[in-house]
Design brief:
Strand content: 5-15%
CATH class: Alpha Beta
Helix content: 40-55%
Distance between the termini: 62 Å
Number of helices: 7
Structural class: alpha/beta
Low-confidence stretches: 3-9
Radius of gyration: 19 Å
CATH topology: Rossmann fold
Order of helices and strands: HEHEHEEHEHEHEH
Number of domains: 1
Largest sheet: 7 strands, parallel
């Protein structure tokens, strides 16, 4: 066997074992989340501080949803994920954290009542989509945009049934929505109706009221 063939065989061997690890993460996720009931996924920055207004808004939304009977799913880390889990726990609901192993930032917060651990982002995103009946997207960075894009694409392409996608904080999201309209829509890359896939709100009570109206527990 030459060196090149050895390298190819070694990569194939590693890929085969990686496949089993991926399958195991799916099975663990399905087993852990299968009985959680009506749930709402909340996304947002890991870098937000407890004293930030957006932290308090996230906490309030999660607490009120938990009191209304919804489970709350977050990424399980700090910042706005912590705010979501904290509100869920204080509201007496199931506080679920889909924790991802990362070298920076991502440490599980102390307010999780049900924790699932992942190494693969794409497996974790499946769980966010599969077990949530609504998406609440708070201000955040690349990770939050990735999760938002996933929900928009799957809804646009009808790979999943439409569900509420709520962007909270109009001031934060307005520049992105303007870009959707002025660049994507104007060039024909999306349709006018695609801008109706999501809703933008500010007030926590409006967020909770919309979800309660569309998703009956």
């Amino acid at each position: 066997m030459n060196v090149r063939q050895y390298v190819i065989d070694d990569l194939s061997y590693k890929d085969s074992w990686r496949l089993f690890k991926i399958m195991a993460e799916f099975v663990d996720g399905f087993d852990s989340l299968n009985e959680i009931g009506p749930a709402v996924s909340i996304f947002g920055s890991a870098r937000a501080k407890e004293e930030d207004a957006v932290y308090k808004t996230t906490y309030e939304i999660a607490k009120k949803l938990a009191e209304a009977g919804y489970s709350i799913i977050t990424g399980g880390g700090p910042g706005l994920m912590e705010a979501g889990n904290r509100g869920a726990r204080d509201g007496g609901g199931s506080s679920i954290g889909l924790h991802i192993h990362l070298p920076l930032e991502q440490k599980p917060n102390e307010y999780i009542t049900l924790r699932c651990d992942f190494r693969y982002f794409f497996v974790r995103k499946v769980m966010f989509i599969k077990y949530a009946m609504a998406y609440i997207v708070m201000p955040g960075g690349f990770g939050t945009l990735d999760e938002l894009s996933e929900a928009l694409v799957l809804t646009q392409t009808r790979r999943i049934k439409p569900f509420p996608i709520i962007l909270v904080d109009r001031e934060f999201w307005s520049p992105l929505i303007d870009w959707f309209r002025d660049s994507l829509l104007r060039r024909g890359y999306i349709k006018e109706g695609d801008l109706e896939i999501f809703t933008t709100l500010d007030d926590p009570d409006e967020v909770v009221s919309l979800i309660k109206k569309l998703i009956i527990v």
